[in-house]
What we know:
Elements: E1 28-29, E2 35-37, E3 40-41, H1 42-49, E4 53-57, H2 58-78, E5 83-88, H3 95-103, E6 107-110, H4 113-121, E7 129-131, H5 138-147, E8 151-154, H6 157-170, E9 174-181, E10 184-188, E11 190-193, E12 203-204, H7 208-216, E13 221-227, E14 231-234, H8 238-257, E15 262-264, H9 282-300, E16 306-309, H10 313-316, E17 320-334, E18 337-344, H11 353-357, E19 363-365, E20 374-380, E21 389-397, E22 405-409, E23 430-434, E24 437-442, H12 447-452
Parallel strand pairs: 4-23, 5-6, 5-16, 6-7, 7-8, 8-9, 9-12, 9-13, 10-14, 13-15, 15-16, 18-20
Antiparallel strand pairs: 1-2, 2-3, 4-17, 10-11, 17-18, 17-22, 19-22, 20-21, 23-24
The structure holds pyridoxal-5'-phosphate (PLP).
EC number: 4.1.1.20
Family: Belongs to the Orn/Lys/Arg decarboxylase class-II family. LysA subfamily.
Keywords: Amino-acid biosynthesis, Decarboxylase, Lyase, Lysine biosynthesis, Pyridoxal phosphate
Amino acid sequence: MASTVSAVPAAPADPNALAPEVWPQGAARDAEGRLVVGGVDAVALAEQFGTPLYVVDEAVVRERAERFREAFDAAARRIGSQATVYYAGKAFLSTAIVRWVTEAGLGVDVCTGGELAVALAAGADPSRLGFHGNNKSVGEIARAVDAGVGALIIDSEIEIERVAEAAARAGRVQRVRLRVNSGVHASTHEFLATAHEDQKFGVPLSRAVELGARIREHDSLEFLGLHCHIGSQIFDAAGFAESAERLIAVHAELDRVAPVPELNLGGGFGIAYTEADRPAPIERIADGIADAVAAACEAHGVRVPRLAFEPGRSIVGPAGVTLYTVGTVKPVPTDDGWRHYVSVDGGMSDNVRTALYGAAYTVRLASRRSDAPAALVRVAGKHCESGDIVVDADWLPHDVGPGDLVAVAATGAYCWSLASNYNHVPRPPVVAVRDGQARVIVRGETEADLLARDAGIDASDGIEGTPA
Ligand SMILES: *Cc1c(COP(=O)(O)O)cnc(C)c1O
């Protein structure tokens, strides 16, 4: 799962410090102590765009996308192959992000008609898109096929016929992968490897040979290879290596019938949400996976296929921060002292990961630095829900108070994409920063947006009108 709430982190030597592994590369404090991201200071951002505000450092996204592509490609070339990297759009999808990652040489994975629409609206080359999902509608399949999507990832036996039919109807040969579950489930430094996995995605590995043959019976389908995705927030290569070994045994069987050009090992590469998180550098993970693939291919006497990967979180997560304005602060007695509840103007509507997964985050003062001693804080949102926590436990200068801006690090992935309108809170805008410039890439919602879908309001009266 996600980075989970552990023990309370140790009090930092300096609660103003910005740990480089947690904050976007290059984030710093200016002479006045204000947080600066992408060359733009947090106070200026809050004044111009309001809070809460999602801030994404464009250069960091682009650099990470390039770094991942190069790391996987270098590792694959070392074992006589090549790698394709797809950005998993569900982490955070907008047309700007699609352009950044495609310009860095990545393909894009989508898993609904809506995500496909965004990728196409951004001008992505359809042949470099993958379409996932355990329950794609017949309409979505037809749309993906008609758009010329590079690959559909078949997730169940039923989908073989559906995709074959859609492709035949469109007069195309559709490339497909077959999603299997390898029985390996990984997170951070651990993985669990079982024979069977009780989960909704994919088909059991034990059926892959049979279903691969079924795919090959259709003239309208072209079988690219196996696909699997073993988890999220994974810090090293071990789980991927185990999964690759299991897949390659089956890949080799399929390859004996006809060449299987590709093996897709999915995403799930971890990032640092707090200083306690220590993901291995992606180059080392890529090398570890490549070594395991090369060894397994040799053992099974099969050519090393082209490798494919699907990072989402690890591309955009570290590039994002969320800015909030503090409204209230209250000390609450606990069994071992005091905890300061710092309430901010957003919450589970803009970041549900803490409530949903017990995720851990890092918070810092963004509008100033302070010499006050550190106090243990819990950053709470404004929603009518006691589980509405943004940062479960971290330390801020003791004098944090109303009007201060705070920043939460590593919010680039699975925050905006999981945002809601709970309590009719409008979703915040997303601002991209780069070289000292800020621009809106997704506009924020207004109350008018919230009311616009309410069918009980007479459109001709406008939102303030009362029914006649
Ligand atoms: C979610 C998902 C990803 C991306 O996972 P991250 O943890 O964001 O890297 C990649 N592939 C598939 C099939 C997924 O479902």
